[in-house]
Specification:
two-stranded antiparallel sheet; globular; 4 strands; 19 helices; about 575 residues; binds protoporphyrin IX containing FE
Amino acid sequence: MIPKRSPSPVPSSPMTHQLPSNHFLSLQPSFAQPTVAFPSGVPSTSSHESHGQAPNTASLASADFEVDVRTGFLPGSKNVERLTGRYEVWEEALDAAKGSQPGSGLIIGGQREQENLWRNGIQMMPVVDTADLLVSLPHLRRAHVVLTFLAHFYVHTTPASTSSSVPSTKEPIPIPACISVPLLTVSPLLGLPPVLTYADTVLWNFLPSNPSIAPSASVNLPSEIITTFTGTRSEEQFYLISALTEIAGAEALRLMRQSLDELFLADEKALRRLTIYLKKLANQIDKISDITMTLMKEVDPEEFYHLIRPWFRGGDGDGPNSAGWNYLGLDDTTSTTSVAESSDTQGKKGKLFSGPSAGQSSLIHAIDIFLTVDHSPTEQEKLEALNAVEHPTQSKILVDSTPINPSEQSAPPAHGHGHGAAPKGEATFVQRMLQYMPLPHRSFLLHLSTHPTPLRPLVVHYAASHPALAAAYDGALESLRRFREKHMRIVSLFIVQQARRQPSERVRKMMGLEPLSGEEEAQLKEVDITEIRGTGGSALFKFLKRCRDNTTKAMVRPSQAGYELE
Ligand code: HEM
């Protein structure tokens, strides 16, 4: 007979692990409440609104949070490929921008007649009513994809202002009302800022091999990308490989859910199973790393850096003194565009949003929370960040993961839940990236964090009596650290090394630039890598190392970290 199993109490203090109140995931979610009916279902925030009374649905696969058992953070149903009817005009403008084949589309800088004509065409486009889109979530998502691609096409083909070369005196770049008005209507319904995000380039931008059935990790993998800027294979692969990591993440979420069930019981049998699940989780994280590393082969680093990445730049692309983007048609008196907006830009024309980054993917953050990897600033860093706000000119980069843009150094705005009042300078990169995730995913991460699992305290408690459990836990963290080390290699190849070189003649041609002499081409550029920023606005060199080191710190028996970004 199977002995009756009952839940074990969570080991009590000193092992009970509480996330510090200033941990990014201890903050309450930000809500972008829809103001109109949402017939396909309002993204649920019920667990937060229940003030802790909701059941712990940290099932890690909850439809409530738009997390699918088969696809993880990718939608479980087919993405819309093309809007029709009155929205066809947006799709046609996008077709014209992309061109029919690689090389025939618009080019950054907008120096040619082709870009000029396209922008003129956009200015004549009508402001289309979005009411019909509200009937379907996949259609709303496609609208965000199309409108943000159009916005980035428009901004980056606007010739640089000749009136002043001083960035701080530049005028914000206008986004015509025909793009900005529908974008500002659709974005809050999805809980996103009005800028291109990881959701637009990856989550809502793929089709599986058989589009007539649901995507799945076993039989129907993501195989096609719907929208790109350049039409290049490199760009498609960049998005597709990210989608493949997401679908591999579904299995990691499943293992985390099973582990949580065992944690609840925490008897001998459960500890054995937990050990097995943690080992499997380590393997799955290694698989995610392997998929990520295929970028090295499938994406051309030069094309990525010079041709593709510049399209991603958001309104904060020029750093602290960026002029930002001016969303025309926005009422000046209520000019907040998104919960992601810094209080410093509210009421101002120039909105500073960051461009897309895989740091906006919820997957690695979910694994971090589950394994209790803490990315919140240390006391020392908080002090330094506060100091930075008081003396903004002393140093631009004070905390590795603190936004380097002074105007963004405030924590995300409070959202009526009594939180978010952290001192200025505390908003870490991850806190900021939360605001660039679709609302249900953001809520999911916040839900997980406000119901912290007793995994680490339990592992520490049983470390002496159950060394295999501690080894399995550390093994999962080791895999996560390996992922971060491999990712740093990717960043080194795709960003740091490319920043030092001139683009080759082939790529210069694709960029619409004149060829260089052999001597000029061979010349290495002087680049201070501590100054290089990610598209998410981070001072990437310090930031990535810090994320890696935080992973090591969570280990019960930390081993040494290795790779240095050079
Ligand atoms: C060519 C490929 C890639 C490049 C150049 C790249 C670059 C970067 C950069 C520069 C950052 C710093 C944050 C920022 O954007 O400001 C970052 C962060 C991040 N990236 Fe990537 N990335 C790539 C692919 C990926 C993929 C495929 C994944 C997911 C599997 C990923 C996951 C992350 C995560 C989770 C972070 C946050 C930092 C961390 O948690 O360690 N990246 N990436």
